[in-house]
Design brief:
The protein is of the alpha+beta class. It contains 1 helix and 8 strands.
Length: 164
């Protein structure tokens, strides 16, 4: 009796192992297919931005709202540090809940030449990559409203590519 039970267990385990190997193979192939389906596309965004900088630490927080290719209407948030150059990380939130994750670098602190790198996302933007050059227009500096803080508002344009 023990031999029949042992043989059945071995056959069952072999069947389970085959099923597991087939399932893992299918997952790997599906993951490869997703990565191969990624396409690089032009990216363009316009938004209105408000940045608040703590003058004692250089820390900053920004909010923006606008429209972008592949996102439609979006809102965003970012934070970082502005000493000596301006660096930070942000999230662009599409109306349907998909998000694009970015990091930001502006070595000169000027109104042109800053770069936003796309570092990932969720939804259809999972594993997204890309970069966009930022330019600022209609820049307004407010030193008076909140002593110790600089509030900067401007219109932003981003032009680049996104791969997803």
């Amino acid at each position: 009796m023990k031999t029949n039970i042992t043989n059945k267990a071995i056959v069952t385990m072999k069947s389970m192992t085959k099923a597991l190997v087939l399932g893992l193979t299918a997952l790997i192939l599906a993951g490869t297919a997703v990565a191969q389906d990624q396409v690089t596309r032009p990216f363009f965004a316009q938004s209105h931005v408000e940045v608040v900088i703590d003058l004692s630490t250089g820390a900053w927080y920004a909010m923006n709202e606008g429209t972008a290719t592949h996102l439609g209407h979006f809102t965003g948030e970012a934070e970082g540090i502005s000493q000596p150059s301006i660096v930070g990380e942000g999230i662009l939130n599409a109306a349907n809940g998909d998000q694009v994750f970015t990091c930001f670098e502006n070595p000169t602190g000027g109104q042109e030449g800053a770069v936003q790198y796309i570092t990932g996302g969720n939804g259809r933007f999972e594993n997204a990559t890309g970069e966009a050059i930022q330019t600022q227009h209609n820049v307004f500096y407010d030193f008076l409203t909140n002593p110790g803080f600089l509030i900067i508002t401007y219109d932003e344009v981003l032009v680049g590519t996104i791969t997803y």
